[in-house]
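Thread: Newbie trying to understand structure tokens

Hi all, I'm a second-year student working on a class project, and my supervisor (Dr. K.) asked me to get a predicted structure for one chain before our next meeting. I've only ever worked with sequences, so writing a 3D structure as a token string is new to me. If someone could post the tokens and maybe explain what I'm looking at, I'd be very grateful. Here's the chain:
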Amino acid sequence: MVQVEEAENYKNKGNDAFKSEDYELALSLYNKAINITAKDSRDMATYLKNRAAAYLKLKEYEKTIKDCSEALDIIPEDPKAMFRRAQALENLERYEEAYRDAKTIFTVDPANKAIQPMLGRLHAIVEERARTAAQTSNKVDQMFKLAFEFTADNDKREKAMTNLLVLSKENAAAEVMLKNGIIHKIQQLVKNEKHPEIYINSIRVISQLCKGNVQRTISVINVVGVPWFLEIIDSDNEEIVNVAQYCLQTILNTFSGMDSNKETKPDKKLCEEHKSSIDTLLTCLTYSITNRVITGLARDAIIELIMRNCHYTTLNWSERFIEIRGLQRLLEVCSELEEYKYESAMNITPSSRTIAAACLAKIYENMYYDEARGKFNEQVDDFVKSKLLTPDLESKVRVTVAITSLLRGPLDVGNYVISKEGIIEMILVMAQTDDQLQQKTACECLIAAASKKDKAKAIITKGVDILKKLYTCKNDAVRVRALVGLCKIGSFGGDDASIRPFADGSTSKLADACRKFLINPAKDKDMRKWAAEGLSYLTLDADVKEKLVEDKAALNSLIELAKTGDQSCLYGVVTTLVNLCNAYDKQEIMPEMLELAKFAKHHIPEQHELDDPDFVNKRLTVLCKAGVTSGLVALAKTESHNSRELIARVFNAICSLQDLRGIVVQQGGAKVLIPMALEGTNTGKKQAAQALARIGITINPEVAFPGQRNLEVVRPLLALLHPDCTALENFEALMALCNLAGMNETTRNRILKEGGLSKIENYMYEDHVMLQRAATQCICNLVQSEEVIKTFEGNNDKTKFLTLLCQEEDIDTVMAASGALCVLTAANKTCCRKILDLDSWLESLRCLLANPNKEIQYRGTYLLYNIVKEDVDMAARVFETDVMEILMAITKLDDQECKRSKECAQKCLNAAEELGVIRKPDDKLPH
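---
Reply by user tm_fold:
Sure, no problem. This is what the structure looks like when written as tokens:
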């Protein structure tokens, strides 16, 4: 009895809170009543109904339905429970179910007035949906007859399949298609389909059916099975491979709650629920990495899928990948040879080893504790030992190729392996043989090993003579690799003009040798790729930079290499471009430290005169006009974060010149910069975001970021409003955001949703004229939003601070602050009152009204009109001062530019007169 009374007490308090619209408190009290009440009692039904009402107000519709259903289990056909469930179902657009409940209520309680409008509304919706469903079913039937009839005209079949793809995006049509057996039909179609466009669109239909719908995805997999997806990805047609890869990613996203936006995080609850399905898919993909019969393109796509989903920010599958010996499979790909001297174990593309190395690096990133790294290294050791147990030359070659990939992927692991006893000696011995494949392989490994100055020095002492000897051999493939090794060693002084490991003139000779390989049309792409890598080291030398930029043939060849999009060319090409643009990090030398270094007789780096800004800007212009942006766009598809950072650096350097930003946009640069600004290294994201900001300052955002992109660019720009960013980065981001805020309400809402308002406002308080100006201009555009205006109504001094800014010396800041105040005071009387609550409000008004800038003067009169119109008290306060004399003076100005100010000043005087605050001199005093 005590518990019953206590529960009833909680319920009554909950009802009081509900009436006061404190729904969270009501919910808490109803929960307490439910927790101490017998499950099947009538009281429980009441408490559940009440809690459902609170959930309904809080828009927690699923929970509303659950509570109502439980209440109905206790008291069937209870009108209140059924009505609340119907409301929740309607809000979730589950109209047929809502209509069923509404009809039941009407049957039980025909006099219920609340249900009648709902019943009429739902009846119309359900009828319309039934009619649409019938039409949809007819459309689907027609398209089926055309698309899956192999004897029909291919053009008609292609159009029908395209229509099915469009229909699959509609939920009702997707259900009809599934019910009518589209999965079986597509499964049969892909076995014999010869028309690539029909084949590709049929796979896209599967992707669309699976997208965001777990039940449909399970239905698809139950029909075709996971191996079917591995069959369709096995193709030599790049477009087919891409759509199959996308389809598999869509399925993983559906099971995990992710989407195509790389910033989205998986839903832990969904991942746990579908853990088995996710694990099966990724395990099948892992086992397919070393499938001997699939195409190289399919293998690359499978590795990319593993790479995208293994990281702890996605499905966190790296440890499981290592557990099922996935590392060994990746290392097998890394050890594969494109040459046919040895029997090839599998098909690979020129990018396969690069992609596998990037995947190894991504997995190693997840090994954030010692035990996990130990397991990683242990499996790498096992692979190396298993290969070297066989004494034949092929095993040594394959191990060396794998070590090269490790040095290009998880560098720490590569260094760990190469430092093991006998490994570097084995590589040097291979380099000195007469076997060209061994020579090539050893050269590549030595190049990768000289990744740091200490390693470069070690190789100078051990291997430089060997590299020089190899450079004199007759085989071009060996020569170009030896050349790159010499280039790398010759560049370890970086851009310090005072350090030269080789004799004067040697760097230019090496660059000339690279150029010959690069521009020679008789040389294959592999040779040109290595020549580009050689230049990537030599172009730290300013003389080489200038010579290369002036060499149109070499520059065009470099850009054409980039446009191929070959990932194996990426490092050499992009690093060369970074060097040409001087887009690498430069150490700032403080004058005090310089003097100290001189005193201590330490080495002081010297900048070459050809690295002065004028020369750098000239190089940027030449590169951009030669079409470098198109090459960068082609290479930007890489999954390597470090490579994306290099690409972003080049883009940002080019965008530093205002005249080049239009070219970047025209050639698709803005499109690829957005994903680079959202995912990657911190530096890479910052560089890409700054490039976007620079584009957004100069070019109309509607042109630079059309459609959805103007929303996507908001987050990267806001990321630059951070204390760790430079003042220039802050300023450029504010300017770009200002332009975006002026576009439309949707974009302004996105800025607010991403927390942009408070970030922007912070810079209004900066003791930096440019930052304060840019932030105020941004706010001036943002106040066009009703949501922003509401923030100025609250208990804060934001309106007052804008009024204070009207006293600043910077004209542009005053213009923006007064513009924002004009909008605020026109929309809201509270803001008008806040201005007059400021002690120095009169000083601010005088600054505006007496300003020599005619636009600011007009804004001052407009602002004043908003304050005085229709409010006697405020008008009286204003006209107690000398404002009337200033306004009268403005009305007498003759300057044509003052026309708007004169008109507005007169409106102020007229408004005050109508309110009885002032009178004309000839007016009689009232009796």
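A couple of things are worth pointing out once you decode it. The chain is about 70% helix and 0% strand. Residues 494-503, 923-927 have pLDDT under 50 and may be disordered. Feel free to ask follow-ups in this thread.
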